[in-house]
Give the backbone structure.
Amino acid sequence: MSRAAPPILSLALPSETGRVLSIQSHTVQGYVGNKSAVFPLQLLGYDVDPINSVQFSNHTGYPTFKGQVLNGQQLWELIEGLEANDLLYYTHLLTGYIGSVSFLNTVLRVVDKLRSVNPKLTYVCDPVMGDEGKLYIPQELVTVYREKVVPVASMLTPNQFEAELLTGYRIVSEGDGREACNKLHDAGPSKVVITSISINGDLRLIGSHQKEKGQVPEQFKILIPKIPAYFTGTGDLMTALLLGWSNKHPDNLDKAAELAVSSLQAVLQRTVNDYRSAEFDPQSSSLEIRLIQSQDDIRNPQVNFKAERFD
């Protein structure tokens, strides 16, 4: 006699937060991709199911790395396994760096499949394509992001260069940033956060929330200090924090962004201080973020960075 499987408690007893499927890279050592995103979301109260798009020994900034890459067919097999056991109910899908067109097209199938189970699924997409004018991915992926991914995303978190790639606009002012957000709203997502825009050497985040289609979006900026160091995994962490806090403050994207920025800056400052304590010059190499040591700053951030609304 076969016994019934016990209920999945994250489905039977839904929390106030949610259940996230996170499709991102994984490193054995260090904090990028899922290693940067899963733990913070768990600290904020989410059940997170990670699918690792790659499994590498370490991130690719080291002299060497070894590991495996998941292809689109293998991703779909995992989704089929979940579906066969009625485990495909998610409140959120989170995606980060994706390296091939076939894998990104499979992710689009995953979005459709998850929305067939939960039409209210929130898809948070970090369209990782490049930074500071340099493309990390094949050019044809940019087209897939622009034409197929942006229209189905609920929230997008590009950096300045990625927002330019997606809109075709050059962003050299706050007005340009706001206009890029408007163009992205027209294409699909109701929430857009351009996570870093450099204007005359100063960094800022620009966020935009269009609460109803056709409505004028609420837009804001947060000024961000420049820390003289280069970190890995910060974009992955930022998008996870934006997912976590925007779900807790669904009508206040500015408040969610304040919390996310404040957490991230606390993590980065601790990272720099700790490397200095170890007598390592933080400017000499890319730094692994001190995620575990910063868990209090993730769970209960002190809001040191305030949003300023545009009229």
About this structure: The chain has a mean pLDDT of 94. The longest strand covers residues 47-56. The radius of gyration is 19 Å.
